[in-house]
Amino acid sequence: MENVLSFNSSFSYNINAGSIKSKEKKGVLTDYNNNGSNINYKHNHSLSDSEKSNKPPLPPPVSLDSDDVNNLNNKSLADLRGSVLLKFKEFIDYTQNITQNQKWKTQVNKDREIEKKLNAEIKECEEKTRVLGQTLAKEATQIEEAQKTNIDLQHQVQTLIDRKTNFQSQVQTLEKELQKLQAFKSAQKQAIQMQFSRNESELQLYKDTLKMKLVGLQTDNILVSFKCISDHDSEREYSFLVDVTESQYKNRTAGRIPEQNTSVFFVPEKDPESVSRTLQK
């Protein structure tokens, strides 16, 4: 008689000895005792197709020889039931570990995909950071150059402001000097006008009494002629060459007007009064 104890996905065992009988049913372990009543052991675990395809192979069936069968028959039914339940529990733990491992593998694959995406995003961020760093370095160089240019421009502006201030100071100084000069010229002009008014009456007296006239002008000399000086000859003409350098008048000559010297003087076409006004200016 062949006595075989085997384990598969439905966990069945066949023992053909004495009054102990067993039969296989998918998902149900049935044990018959001596009284004919049966005891069913069920488990609710069922594997999916992917789990079945990925699960590792089960260990090979265990064969029992005749001595083992005799020893098994000699054991009590309670010991046999305990041994079967222990092996069944080990099988359940084994299948649960396989299922858990499959779940872990699936989760690990998902985590790896997430890790790949995160690594890609990290590389992209690193590249953006590198480009941004180059841009910031370039902008920092441009800012430094702009600051240098700004400093140069501020220096130029300050130089122009200083020059403007200096120029305004010079202009104010010149304006003050001009005002002083204008005041001096105005006073001088008033003095000249007063002197001219006094000299004009005296000149008219000379014209009426001595028939005085201005013959000609030279750079610093005035040629003046008079009559009515000699008691014997009232028409006799006398000439004077007056030096007007630095307002110090000197009588350089006296006597008749030399004919040969009259050509060196400019004889104005206007009357002596206009010549006198020209000299006063």
Can you give a write-up of this model?
The protein has 281 residues and is α+β, with helices and mostly antiparallel strands. Among the domains are: 4-104, no CATH class; 211-280, no CATH class. Helices cover 56% and strands 14% of the residues. It is built from 4 helices and 9 strands; from the N terminus they run ββββαβααββββα. The protein has helices at 49-54, 66-74, 77-210, 272-280, and strands at 4-5, 21-25, 28-32, 38-42, 62-63, 213-217, 221-226, 238-243, 250-251. The protein has a 4-stranded antiparallel sheet, covered by helices on one side. The protein has a 3-stranded antiparallel sheet with strand order 2-3-4, with no helix packed on it. Strand 2 (21-25) and strand 3 (28-32) form a beta hairpin. The longest helix is centred in the middle third of the chain and has 134 residues, at 77-210. The radius of gyration is 73 Å and the shape is rod-shaped. The relative contact order is 0.05. Residues 1-45 and 253-281 have low confidence and may be disordered. Component of the NDC80 complex. Acts as a component of the essential kinetochore-associated NDC80 complex, which is required for chromosome segregation and spindle checkpoint activity. One of its GO terms (cellular component) is nucleus. It comes from Ambispora gerdemannii. Belongs to the SPC25 family.
